[in-house]
TrEMBL record:
Gene3D superfamilies: 3.30.465.10, 3.40.462.20, Luciferase-like domain, Uridine Diphospho-n-acetylenolpyruvylglucosamine Reductase, domain 2
Keyword entries, A-Z: FAD, Flavoprotein, Oxidoreductase
Name of the protein described by the UniProt record: FAD-binding PCMH-type domain-containing protein
SUPFAM superfamilies noted in UniProt: Bacterial luciferase-like, FAD-binding/transporter-associated domain-like
Superkingdom as given in the UniProt entry: Bacteria
Cofactor(s) needed for function: FAD
Domain FAD-binding PCMH-type: 349-520
Family that this chain belongs to: Belongs to the oxygen-dependent FAD-linked oxidoreductase family.
Upper classification of the organism: Bacteria, Bacillati, Actinomycetota, Actinomycetes, Micrococcales
PROSITE patterns assigned: FAD_PCMH
Length: 761
């Protein structure tokens, strides 16, 4: 018995004929409607009666929503591997991670040569395919900043720029029959994709044995390689041979191949819609049920739990990997996995966690949280991994990533209530809400995660108009340390709801937030460069202009020391918005002129665009960003004394990035006791990034400490205990300790500026 434990997948193999160009598209849509997992198309670029496969796959991806798409198999003999890799990554990004790579070395060499392609011997084709795999994987490795160089005999790249990274780890399934290709699959590929009509009795077993032997020799587990099968046949009322007979016969034969030959992906060949329906409705559910029952009886471990020698050697101390629940193991990423490089770091912080869990629902979050508490390592919870403080990764611990929970759903049109998964990004939120003319203030970058910012504060480009992001949160789903799933709001668990809005990371794992969006028309986004030679005068004038401006204006400033003979400069990023209407250009110009008067104007550009054009959807392929040290503080006004303190901080040379964000406005209408974020009179937030924590602490404490008025912990990496009372002044801090004692008495959530439970918990 050979069962590698992969989740069963079922798909169709559709001819890309062009006589009726929409015919293959309709069959792909039918496959999706019937609940199948995969639709595939053969690739013969020299065949004039076929549609171009890449074009067809792109069209089908745009005409479907869920089903995965693959060539079966793509002819690498006529395609440049680096271009294939970029095309695949692009289609994967555009389709939301639905592209899979079925690949072949090429065939029909007369036809290929007739189209201007190379003519290769079988041995040369295998060598070219192996070189192609290295190039494709190298292009997808966008986190590697070194240029890609592969000096192959048939395929070469010399300094190619890597990227883009695909939306998911695209598996490479290879169509093959001969021993050398099978050994290549075992060594370097992710799946074997033969066609049953070309196989003889025993070929599946012999092919598996060859692949498994090569995998073990390479330090891999044979279970790392999925076994797929293209199947010809007809579902009929009478049996006349293998896969020629009633649905019950198909169920028996496919179940046997799954359990005895390790096949986990069955692809039905043929273009008859009635046959596709019969396969999807009569065969697929029964095969799933039969295989699942047998696996339960036999105690078959899922493929994700089986690791090769190299992967096992990379595991970290303190983590019982083998006890990980199967539903989490299926998507977990370990240090030895190929995906590890894409999930280990966050935006600005390098990390080396021992395991990254990627739950897909609240039950899996609860399961993962319970399991982590039995391990002897630290826990980090990650929304999208953009946080400056870097608490969403660690070294040797477990990261609970919410990346699989990123839906954006309108639950009440009348109140504009939107339920947002904690792993979604604010760019995704803005893009979803833009067609309705809605917006939620949310920082200044679309790659920021909803769960992190939406439980901490949210000082954004609409902040003076709308207030903080947390001011519009009306409900949340939270998994607490003891595994309870609670819905918190003003009416349910109001103490927890209060704490979540400002100190949420200390109370549990938030899986979704419900937020009431505002009605916002097109906004003006201005980027202005000012001479900052007179830093104190610039800050005083800009600060006064911002405070006096209508609430629709929110402005952020970045101060630079100047390089290459240039003096110090200030970059202003300003949004002017109006509640319920588009901005009047003349009014916006008048407001911007007041900002421009703060200092000599060196450059300016402004655009009228939707809020989603300012906070844009971004791809979050994080590779660490230099591990900066950071300090952050709140300021009431930019008066002369405060402005001089900022000037002295800049003069110290310790801060290489200094930003001031305008806050206040509507945010200051909220009572300090209404949320765990109690800072409701300050008008500015100051952030400094540096290369050395001790030195920036000294400069900050000497210059900014005397003038700052509270702290916003999202922008601080100083872990000294006095930061807590700056962020949560009394009586907020004592109240938080009481809530902490109720919902996390064991202090499970302690890695992000920990709030100790009240005494006697």
């Amino acid at each position: 018995m050979t069962d590698y434990g992969h989740e069963l997948l079922f798909g169709t193999f559709i001819s890309p004929t062009n006589a009726d160009p929409q015919g293959p598209v309709r069959l792909a849509q039918l496959s999706e409607q019937l609940g199948l997992d995969l639709v595939t198309f053969q690739d013969h670029p020299y065949q004039p009666s076929f549609l171009d496969t890449w074009t067809l796959m792109s069209w089908v991806a745009a005409q479907t929503e869920r089903i995965h798409i693959s060539g079966n198999v793509l002819n690498l003999g006529m395609r440049q591997p680096a271009i294939v890799a970029r095309s695949a990554a692009s289609l994967d990004l555009l389709s939301g991670g639905r592209f899979e790579m079925g690949l072949g070395a090429g065939g029909f060499w007369d036809a290929i040569a007739g189209m201007g392609g190379p003519r290769r011997t079988p041995g040369e084709a295998v060598s070219a395919l192996e070189e192609g795999l290295e190039i494709m994987r190298g292009i997808w490795d966008a986190g590697n900043r070194t240029p890609l160089r592969v000096a192959g005999k048939f395929h070469q790249v010399d300094g190619a720029k890597r990227g883009p990274a695909p939306a998911h780890d695209i598996p490479i399934w290879i169509g093959a029959l001969k021993p050398r290709m099978l050994r290549l699959i075992g060594t370097k590929a992710d799946g074997w994709l033969p066609s049953l009509p070309y196989l003889k009795d025993g070929d599946l077993a012999r092919g598996n044995a060859t692949i498994d032997e090569a995998a073990l020799a390479a330090g891999r587990s044979p279970s790392e390689i999925r076994r797929l099968l293209n199947m010809g046949g007809t579902i009929t009322s009478r049996s006349s041979g293998p896969l020629q007979g009633p649905a019950d016969q198909w169920v028996e034969e496919l179940t046997h191949m799954a359990l005895e030959d390790g096949v986990s992906t069955f692809i039905a060949m043929g273009d008859d819609p009635d046959q596709i329906r019969a396969f999807a409705q009569e065969v697929v559910p029964a095969v799933r049920e039969a295989v699942a029952a047998e696996r339960r009886s036999a105690g078959t471990a899922p493929a994700s739990a089986r690791r090769g020698a190299k992967a096992l050697a990379a595991r970290r101390q303190g983590i019982d990997y083998d006890s990980l629940p199967p539903e989490l193991a299926a998507r977990a990423v370990e240090p030895g996995d190929r995906e590890y490089g894409s999930v280990r770091h966050n935006y600005l912080r390098a990390g080396a966690p021992g395991l990254v869990l990627r739950p897909q629902g609240v039950d899996e979050v609860a399961s993962g949280l319970a399991w982590v508490q039995k391990q002897d390592v630290e826990l980090a919870v990650r929304s999208a991994g953009h946080g400056i403080s870097g608490r969403s990764t660690n070294d040797g611990g477990v990261v609970l990533s919410m990346s699989g929970m990123r839906s954006v759903e309108v639950v009440d049109e009348a109140t504009r209530r939107v339920r947002i998964g904690a792993g979604a990004t604010w760019g995704e939120v803005a893009e979803t809400l833009a067609p309705r003319g809605w917006a939620i203030t949310s920082g200044d970058y679309g790659g920021v995660g909803v769960g992190g910012l939406g439980t901490t504060g949210g000082i954004g480009y609409l902040g003076r108009l709308q207030g903080l992001t947390i001011d519009h949160v009306v409900a949340a789903e939270v998994v607490t340390a003891d595994g309870r799933v609670l819905h918190a709001s003003r009416d349910k668990h109001p103490d927890l709801f209060w704490a979540l809005r400002g100190a949420g990371g200390n109370m549990g794992v938030v899986t979704w937030l419900e937020i009431e969006a505002g009605v916002v028309g097109d906004v003006v986004y201005s980027q202005m460069t000012l001479d900052a030679t007179d830093t104190v005068g610039l800050l005083e004038k800009w600060g006064a202009a911002v405070e006096a401006a209508p609430r629709g204006l929110t402005s952020f400033m970045v101060l630079g020391r100047g390089r290459g003979g240039q003096g110090p400069m200030a970059q202003l990023m300003t949004v002017i918005a109006a509640e319920g209407a588009d901005v009047e250009p003349d009014e916006a110009i008048a407001q911007l002129e007041l900002l421009a008067d703060a200092g000599p104007l060196l450059g300016h550009q402004a655009q009228l665009l939707p809020y989603s054009g300012v906070v844009r959807k971004e791809d979050a392929h994080h590779s660490g960003g230099g591990d900066p040290s950071a300090r952050g503080g709140l300021l009431t006004h930019l008066d002369q004394g405060t402005s001089r303190a900022i000037e002295r901080l800049l003069g110290s040379g310790e801060s290489y990035f200094t930003q001031i964000r305008a806050t206040g406005g509507a945010g200051n209408d909220v009572a300090p006791s209404a949320t765990a974020y109690a800072h409701r009179h300050q008008n500015f937030a100051l952030t400094a990034l540096a290369t050395n924590q001790d030195r920036i602490n000294q400069a900050w404490d000497a210059e900014i400490g005397p003038v700052m008025d509270g702290s916003y912990l999202s922008f601080d990496t100083d872990s000294r205990p006095e930061r807590l009372l700056e962020a949560f002044p009394e009586p907020t801090f004592s109240r938080l300790r009481t809530v902490k004692a109720t919902y996390d008495p064991s202090n499970v959530f302690r890695t992000n500026f920990p709030i100790p439970p009240a005494d006697g918990a």
